[in-house]
Amino acid sequence: MRYQGYHSKMRPFLVFLVICCMIGSSAAYELPDLGDSSSAVFSSQDEKALGREVMLEIRSDQVYFDDPESVDFLNSVGNRLLAVSDDLGGQQFEFFLIQDASLNAFALPGGFIGVHTGLMMAAENESELASVLAHEISHVTQHHIARMIEAQSKNMPLSLAAMAAAILAARSNPDASIGAVMGAQAGMVQAQLDFTRENEREADRLGIQRLIKSGYDPRAMATFFSKLQRYGRFYEGTSPAYLKTHPLTAERLAEIQDRLQAIPYRQVQDGPDFQLIRARIAALSGTPREAMRYFDGRTLDVKRPEDRPLLYGKAVALWRDGKLDAAASTLASVRAVSSPNALYDSLGAQIVHDQGHLDEAINLYRVALHHYPDQRALNYGYIAALLDAHRDKEGLDVINNRLLLSRSDYHLYDLQARAYAHLDKQLLSHEALAESYLRQGNLTAALDQLQIAAKSGDGDFYQNSSVEARIREIKKELNAQNGKKGDRSRLSGS
After folding, report:
1. To 10 degrees, the CA torsion angle through 148, 149, 152, 153?
2. Within a 10 A sphere around the Cβ of 422, how many other Cβ atoms?
3. pLDDT, tens digit (0-9, with 9 covering 90-100), for 53-92
4. CA 307/CA 310 separation, integer angstroms
5. Can you tell me the distance from the alpha carbon of 341 to that of 140, in angstroms, rounded to the nearest whole number?
């Protein structure tokens, strides 16, 4: 497993996540029913709580790739698969990106599925990306981590204690901690290799069904996994990270191919955004200079349809590098020969905004939102332009209307806090920041913001009462969480 690009403070934690994913695929049982005994050891609520704790750490690190256009595309592929799945059992999912060039993806407890940008770039078509997501969704729906904890309950105390010691040791020597953690898990994972293969086959089978039902090409699963094996030749004597956490044996690949033989062939076209998003990720990865070199090293012609996504990516890289006129010119050349697209509208308005033409940018956003009202990047850009133009009340109206549709979007609360701060409404500004932290799972930070809000002195009776009530709710939830953590600690024997 390669960890270049991660903060040193996050390295041991993310090693632990990978271990969790490996372990989470290591119990050889039939599909659990609702009365599965694993739920008595590790309930769905426990899974959600653990997943939220993990995501809190991930979101706080710079490798969390929070680009709304890219994340929305990833979620559109994931949601297409979920829409045809009849085994979700009410499970909610969130798909997110990690900025890392290695080829990896992983499922966490609670329905969180992460994909490295390197894997997005390695996928040559949308079906290949969908095949990975379909596989990871199946690991979640089958509760592999919960089933592992039940099967391994006798060995867990020693293993978790060793992992915890290694993670704590990272404070002084993060690199040494990686070896310690890997050593702690090696025996446990190796001993359960047969179970790992069983669960991988299970996820393959269910993943293929999701691909078929959703209209993606199921053959992409075999194609992409075979490609990962070939990529292994270019890694220093090892294989891509995804194959380490999802072992791909010749027997397993043959079984996938056997399942596909009975499926009639049909050609599946990519959606219009897949190649654009890949180019966008390339433009947003590394330093601005590195991104520019990626595109400058290619001979691109707007007359060739296959080059247009790369030219869009080059416009993104130019914008990111502060070369706004060149970015606008490059984007205009692509738009002149392409169908309308929200990605073009968003970038075009952002360039105009950054050129300082706020009124023009606001008008561009309004026109684009008429065609794409739910596109997050357009909504964020429109609100930011209104706030920069000191049209804060208009911005608040847009924010409040969006919150009626998406109360879980913490970005909207961040913008709301900014608008209230501009209007010198400190209680409401800190209250909005608290709501943002709550949506990210950071109850402690939310409580801090609410306590600041309570002391601001500029709220009326009803606003102060609301803040005090919220403080009591969060304290109660924090106490409950701490109690559950103690229960888990006693369960693991650590």
Report:
1. -160
2. 17
3. 888 888 988 889 999 999 999 999 999 999 999 988 888 9
4. 5
5. 33
Q: Contact at 8 Å (CB) between 290 and 321? A: no
DSSP class per residue in 196-236: HHHHHHHHHHHHHHHHHHHTS-THHHHHHHHHHHHHGGGSS
Cα gap 249→238, rounded to integer Å = 15
By C-alpha distance, which of 63, 68, 59, 78 is closest to 277?
A: 68
The reported pLDDT for the residue numbered 242 is 76
* H or E element, residue 98: strand 94-98
* Strand partners for 116: 98
Query: CA 87: distance to chain centroid?
Result: 22
Predicted pLDDT of residue 171: 34
Which among 122, 75, 100 has a CA at the least distance from the CA of 14? Answer: 100
CB atoms within 10 A of CB 52: 18
User: What are the chain's domains?
Assistant: 11-261 (no CATH), 390-494 (1.25.40)
How long is the chain? 494
Residue type, 377: A
Angle among Cα 152, 33, 218 to the nearest 5 degrees reads 95
In 3D space, the residue among 39, 35, 31 whose CA is nearest the CA of residue 198 turns out to be 31
Angle at alpha carbon of residue 144, lines to 140 and 147, rounded to 5°: 140
pLDDT at 325 over 60: yes
Distance CA 115, CA 258 (A): 27
Helix (H, G, I), strand (E, B) or coil at 41: helix
d(CA 436, CA 325): 35
* Biggest distance spanned by C-alpha atoms of the chain: 70
DSSP annotation of 372 reads -
Q: Calculate the alpha carbon distances from 55 to 42, 102, 147 in Å.
A: 18, 20, 22
Closest CA to 403 of 427, 426, 419: 419
What is the pTM (predicted TM-score) of this model? Answer: 0.84
Q: Give the separation between CA 235 and CA 216, rounded to whole angstroms.
A: 30
Cα separation, 468 vs 304, in Å, equals: 61
How far apart CA 137 and CA 132 sit, in angstroms, is 9
Contact residues for 419 (Cβ-Cβ < 8 A; gap 6+): 387, 392, 395, 396, 399
Query: What is the rounded distance in angstroms from the CA atom of residue 485 to the CA atom of residue 494?
Result: 11
The order of strands in the sheet holding 105-108 is 94-98, 112-116, 105-108
- Asked whether the CA dihedral 142, 145, 146, 150 is positive or negative, the reply is positive
* Among candidate residues 408, 432, 407, the one with its CA nearest the CA of residue 419: 432
